[in-house]
Design goal:
- The protein is α+β, with helices and mostly antiparallel strands.
- The chain is built from 3 helices and 9 strands, in the order αββββββαβββα.
- The chain folds into 2 domains: 42 residues, no CATH class; 78 residues, Gyrase A, domain 2 (2-Layer Sandwich).
- The strands form 2 sheets. Strands 1-6-9-8-7 form a 5-stranded antiparallel β-sheet. A 4-stranded antiparallel β-sheet has the order 3-4-2-5, with no helix packed on it.
- The protein starts with 12 loop residues before the first helix and ends in a 5-residue tail after the last helix.
Length: 146
């Protein structure tokens, strides 16, 4: 018998079912300070690498496993950008926020890392302690689009 994986949003699975919002399975996340050729850019010489293996160590690079710090949500569908624009001040138009781009920002007053992963698809990295609040906010923001 295997135990069900408990995540910060396990209690909202029914509410998210059938919606364009879902919680992604936990993934290994590493904050890298120093030169890094991959990952989501967080600032000068600062990246979030989402990978099963930590980045290769180098004398001038600091790597910290922050896997438990953030929950990853995925919002997709034709109204994803419009829903995000309800609570985000970034210009999310595809000409400005292209596929592959990421940014640290506030979404509904929660600090997040927003990653445009594909056409009409965004990953939202939010601190685990704010995951419930943000998921409920997103569910409320999408009511008019269902």
């Amino acid at each position: 018998m295997t135990a069900e994986l408990r995540t910060p949003l396990a209690h909202l699975r029914e509410a998210m079912a059938g919606s364009p919002l879902r919680e992604l399975p936990p993934r290994r996340q590493f904050e890298v300070r120093g030169h890094c050729d991959k990952g989501l850019w967080l600032g000068p010489d600062w990246h979030l690498v989402v990978d099963d293996d930590p980045p290769a160590a180098a004398p001038t690079v600091s790597t910290v496993d922050v896997s438990a710090a953030r929950t990853i949500l995925e919002l997709s569908g034709p109204n994803a950008r419009t829903i995000l624009e309800h609570g985000c001040s970034l210009d999310l138009h595809p000409r400005a926020f292209t596929i592959g781009k990421s940014a640290q920002t506030n979404l509904a007053k929660a600090q997040v890392i927003l990653h445009h992963t594909a056409h009409n698809t965004y990953e939202i990295y939010v601190r685990a302690s704010f995951a419930d609040y943000l998921a409920r906010w997103l569910l409320d923001a999408m009511v008019e689009y269902r």
